[in-house]
Amino acid sequence: MNGSAAVGRQRLVVCGSDGTVAALDTRTGQAAWPARKGQSAKALAPAVAKDTVYLGGRSLTALALADGAVKWSHRSEAPGEQGAGGWIALDRSGGAEVGTVRARDGVGVWQHSAGQAGRLTAAGADNRVFLLRGGALSAMPVF
């Protein structure tokens, strides 16, 4: 399976090139929970924080690392976790938006228009989320 991966709490979570997400127990190498097919149309890096894995693609979905149970889900384009929340990047016809949801329950906190020009890309590190759109880079605060 080619793709992107994240690891945490004895789980290796892999998103394959076809968007299928699988989790392996790092001690045994066995499947930790059933594979999720159709999460996205391509490999997107999962984000692990504490006992949760965030998946992007057709939705921003929070799953329990232990068993893959869905904690919450929102339609989205890309996952991210910084501070106490998850980030959603939405590319929509005529513009794009980014927003945050609380990590514990998926409740929306705020949204921000990211403008018109170019594809929106989001990445997080060091308690900050970075947005790149149309050649402009923005560093967003987290909560």
Count of alpha/pi helices: 0
* Sequence of secondary-structure elements: EEEEEEEEEEEEEEE
First-to-last CA distance: 35 Å
Number of DSSP strands?
Answer: 15
Number of domains: 2
Largest sheet: 4 strands, antiparallel
How large is the radius of gyration?
Answer: 15 Å
- What CATH architecture of the largest domain do you see? Beta Barrel
Q: Could you say which overall geometry the principal axes of the C-alpha atoms support?
A: globular
Q: Regarding CATH, which class of the largest domain? A: Mainly Beta
Spans of 5+ residues with little confidence (pLDDT < 50)?
Answer: none
Q: Approximately what portion of the residues adopt beta-strand conformation?
A: over 45%
Instruction: Give the mean pLDDT.
Output: 75
Summarize the amount of helix as a percent range. under 10%
Structural summary, described in words:
With 143 residues, the chain is mainly β. It folds into two domains: 76 residues, Thrombin, subunit H; 64 residues, Beta Barrel (Thrombin, subunit H). It is 0% helix and 57% strand. Strand 7 and strand 8 form a beta hairpin. It is globular, with a radius of gyration of 15 Å.
